[in-house]
UniProtKB/TrEMBL annotation:
CDD domains for this protein: Glyco_tranf_GTA_type
Listed InterPro entries: Glyco_trans_2-like, Nucleotide-diphossugar_trans
All copies of domain Glycosyltransferase 2-like, residue ranges: 8-154
Listed name of the protein: Succinoglycan biosynthesis protein exoM
Originating organism: Parvularcula bermudensis (strain ATCC BAA-594 / HTCC2503 / KCTC 12087)
Length: 294
């Protein structure tokens, strides 16, 4: 039996959702259904979904799951999907017209989940170094040519795969972020087969509030915290390594003071290791999700 091809989107106070749905309607391989989970306290996205349904003709399923916890919203998508090939993307992304078709082809080659990149689209006033580094773009992490984790910014998964069938996102990470990384890392440790599909792209227009270096460095620290909290092994050794790596990266950044591209490449890497150190020491920091979206 051929599994239905579904798309899931978590949303929280994001009017841009209408553009995301329009991009799904423009797919060369249109989804059989789109599941939209509204994680706000009130059902603020319902009118947007109703308008999108009338405009696009897509089969849009809407559910209000309050709680300001993105792990709960992601689990609601899994519950609503059942047995399916389930794609996910964010509510501030636009999918390339061949996105689903590319993921579907890759899935047919024997993967439990396939991932594509989320490519940042910068406004004209963005600093030149951002255009060179594209630090807002998201690629699933790799080591030695193999994926070491995944993300829900661009994924297609087989929910019937034994390693994924009963798996759920951990609500403990639902406000601080990183529940998707923890989900996919755990699946990999249990033998999941993941593939990268570089041409299956979604695009994220970068809003003005995210152009600040402060926002970027905080985001990298947050990503590192998730790694530090979720990685098994000896914490003392990992803490020492993180300290050494962050010191090295910041040292390289200081030496590149006249080269913004090199300075921020090393500085952002150093910020990631600061986050790993904080997470390893159990210092999770402030909640990220559930506030006004930025």
């Amino acid at each position: 039996m051929t599994l239905p091809l579904l798309v899931g989107v978590c949303t929280f106070r994001r009017p841009f959702l209408i553009e995301t749905v329009r991009s799904l309607a423009a797919q060369s391989r249109r989804p059989d259904r789109v599941i939209i989970i509204d994680n706000d306290d009130q059902s603020t996205a319902e009118k947007i979904v109703d308008a999108a349904r009338d405009e696009t003709g897509l089969d849009l399923f809407y559910r209000h799951v309050p709680g300001r916890n993105i792990a709960l919203a992601r689990n609601a998508i899994l519950d609503a999907a059942g047995d399916a090939r389930l794609a996910m993307l964010d509510d501030d992304e636009i999918a390339d017209a061949e996105w689903l078709a590319q993921l579907e082809i890759a899935m047919s080659k024997g993967a439990d989940a396939v991932f594509g990149p989320s490519i940042a689209v910068y406004p004209e006033n963005a600093p030149d170094w951002m255009g060179h580094l594209s630090p807002h773009s998201q690629w699933p992490p790799q080591k030695g040519g193999r994926l070491t984790s995944g993300h829900t910014a661009n994924v297609l998964m087989d929910t019937t795969a034994p390693v994924l069938a009963n798996r759920r996102f951990d609500p403990a990470y639902g406000r601080r972020g990183g529940s998707d990384a923890v989900f996919f890392e755990a699946a990999l440790r249990e033998g999941a087969r993941f593939h990268l599909v570089a041409d299956a792209r979604v695009y994220e227009p970068v809003i003005a509030q995210r152009l600040s270096t402060r926002w970027l460095y905080r985001r990298r620290i947050k990503a590192g915290i998730t790694i530090g909290l979720s990685t098994p092994g000896r914490r003392s050794r990992r803490a020492v390594l993180a300290m050494g790596k962050s010191a090295y990266c910041f040292g390289r950044a200081a030496l590149a003071i006249g080269d913004p591209v090199a300075r921020h490449r090393h500085g952002l890497r150093g910020a990631l290791h600061v986050g790993v150190l904080r997470g390893t020491l159990g210092l999770s920091g402030a909640d990220y999700y559930g506030k006004a979206p930025v």
